[in-house]
Amino acid sequence: MAKRETWATRVGFLVAAIGSAVGLGNLWQFPFKTAGNGGAAFVAFYLIAVLLIGFPAMLAEFVMGRRTHRNAVDAFSEIGHRQWRILGAFAVVTGFWILSYYNVVGGWVLRYIVGSAQGAYFGAPAEYFGAVSAGPEAIAAQFVFLAIVVGIVALGIEDGIEKATKVMVPSIAVLLVFLAVWAFTLDGAGAGYAYFLTPSLDAMVENAGTAIPFAVGQAFFTLSLGMAIMITYSSYLGDDDNLLVDGGTVVVFNTLIGILAGLVVFPILFANNIDPGLGGGASALFIAVASGFGSLPLGNLIGVVFFGVVALAALSSAISLMEVTVAWANDNFDVPRPQLAIGIGVGLFVLGLPSAWDVALLTWFDNIAYSLLLPLSVLMLVLFVGWILAGDAVAELRQGAGELGTFGPIWMWALRLTVPALVFATLALGIQTLFLGESPAFFAPF
Ligand code: PFF
């Protein structure tokens, strides 16, 4: 079997990991949930959730990958815990499931780039969204998005993912800054900022029932945890990287991009007197924000840039998720990577067909993932690293990070107790909402 690939540069890993973290969650959930749940007060609360849950869990994935240099399934055998491979397999299947419909949403975004250039949705945004989000057109767009993802992953870690994300991630940041500066010049800017960030403890307390589960769920979703992505990406790392610094950098960038997104969308909505709604999700971007472009000067251009940013964010996330399954296949079968990527792409396309056919089915796929698969996957992995890998995990984290002091035990006990307790609570809530038929609306479009 050929030698396993590695990142060409340390920054390569970092940029790819940021690209994975920065996705639709940052653009169509974070700003809206922040605005509805107490503004800056919610941001502080969300950061605490990320630090308490997301960050320790991300480090757990990092050490699994870097210690073993294997895909998420075989990583467990590599450290002598073959019987726990089922945990890795569960995360891989969760990721495959999520990617099947994420590609469909990616297709919508591509479609909106074209639609913005033509001004196609300017007159009737809701009708346009209804027409392109399901059926043959959505399937065609899903195919195009998936083909781009397959093409990049087929080229490998260094020549595909690293090169692509080194262009995509800086472009996302630069274009978002450009859009935020442009948005600042709009009439609604001040009102938009106030709506987005004015701190309100009252709003937070009042909406605690939805704000807390969202913050907890988002803490691991936004860092791409539970889908084996970070295990896979860190398996291509050298042994001297400082995983603590890398993890911290991902958290900071990921949060900044979410805040920047808010500085773009709310001025657009307020400049056009569009109700921002409270939920976020697909309709917030594809209908509410989109309808703003129609009545603004240079709306076509701004629309193309805006949905271009969304497309880059979705692509760099989808690539990371595709790599999870490709890495597993690549480590196990003596078949060239491009063939593996195409084969897996066909599987994803087929599994995504129901979601592309009917948005209700997409929502069903999404609910299963967010209420059940993701929390369960995170829960099992943190328990494994905390209780079973334990001291070996701390030793691995120390490599490249140096002496950890009290952080080592704090991290361990977080993985053993606090993170599982909080994730278990979301899982219980998720199962409850799933069976009561209500949408938990972490990612859910409507
Ligand atoms: N962190 C990503 C996001 O916020 O959108 C989560 C993700 C979703 C990663 C889907 C990859 C993916 F295919």
Automatic annotation (TrEMBL):
TM ranges are 7-28, 40-63, 84-102, 138-157, 169-196, 208-231, 243-270, 276-294, 301-322, 342-365, 372-390, 410-436
Could you tell me where this protein is found in the cell?
Answer: Membrane
Q: How does it sit in the membrane?
A: Multi-pass membrane protein
Superkingdom assignment: Archaea
Which UniProt keywords are given for this protein, alphabetically ordered?
Answer: Membrane, Transmembrane, Transmembrane helix, Transport
Would I find Transport among this entry's keywords?
yes
Q: What CDD domains has UniProt attached to this entry?
A: SLC6sbd_Tyt1-Like
Identify one Gene Ontology CC term for this UniProt entry.
membrane
Protein name per the record: Neurotransmitter:Na+ symporter, NSS family
